[in-house]
Structure prediction request, 130 residues.
Amino acid sequence: MTTPTLVKDVMWTDFDIVDGKITVQNALNDMQHKKTKMLLVEKAHNHDEYGVVLIADIASKVIAKDRALDRVNIYEIMNKPAMSVHPEMDIRYCAELLSHFGLSRCPVLDNGKIVGVVSLTNIVFNGLRV
Prediction:
């Protein structure tokens, strides 16, 4: 039996978490500067959950509805709670889970804290190499 490749082996750990009160305009500037398609949104309090905003959310919930980028806050359009996985999860199960829910990426949580982000791209390009 071969040792499985785990989420922690393919996730990236360079990520930012934004405050849900920032405007979509500020979030877009941040996303463009960092060349990312997803923003993680901080918990509002200890019993809250993390949120996620994707480029698709901005397109469908702001631009398509002709809302002003500088008048919509991230918390208004985020997906919450964010689907997350554990760093010790086998990437085969992670790929199945993401595919099942139509997601391309999600945060990786360990003891309730975000420790990374995993994507199907990372799983395919980095997880299946021997």
